[in-house]
Write a structure and sequence with these properties.
Length: 93
């Protein structure tokens, strides 16, 4: 079973690509939460588990958590992250 990890930094508009953002700025959002990411993952149709006590390696001072996605064998990580970003953006409107 493939597990993908999605960190909130991947979707954060305030970060540059060098700082860890993985989506284009038009898909990125301000301060994404693990709850929003997990909800978006579930809407796409995959299982999501939130791990709140984890810190992204490029932000070791901020324990924003991460979302572990299970069952996403049929898509690449890049496609998954972009789809999640689109859903988080749509949920905020």
């Amino acid at each position: 079973m493939v597990e993908n990890v999605i960190w909130p930094a991947y979707l954060d508009v305030s970060l540059s690509r060098a700082d860890g953002r993985r989506v284009p700025q038009d898909l990125a959002v301000e301060e994404p939460t693990v709850e929003e990411i997990a909800k978006a993952v579930q809407q796409i149709g995959y299982d999501a588990a939130i791990e709140r006590d984890k810190a992204y390696s490029r932000e070791p001072w901020a324990t924003r958590g991460r979302v572990v996605v299970r069952g996403a064998e049929d898509s690449t990580k890049n496609d998954l992250v972009q789809a999640v970003a689109a859903y988080v953006g749509a949920m905020r409107q």
